[in-house]
């Protein structure tokens, strides 16, 4: 039997990567550590949960879409978002998440630039 795979758009993966990168930068955890398939240390796990929550609130994604974009299941995304919502009772974490949400929305609102060189039909 083939494993269940959900199609995820390239755009969703890019947005999830942006949330991971911002969370990693702000929390001092390398993205590679947050995205390992093996068990990660608690700090990396919480940084990944923060990134999932950031995607959920910044993009307005339902939990299933968050889970798919991060390559996890819906239960994990739900647990992550519940944890982050509870952590927002801490003023320092709440301020951090407000800043990250604003930064992510600003970056995602920038116009796309086509970096393909103009060849005029030539290669």
Automatic annotation (TrEMBL):
UniProt-listed InterPro entries: Trp_repressor/repl_initiator
Descriptive protein name: Chromosomal replication initiator DnaA
Gene source species: Brevundimonas guildfordensis
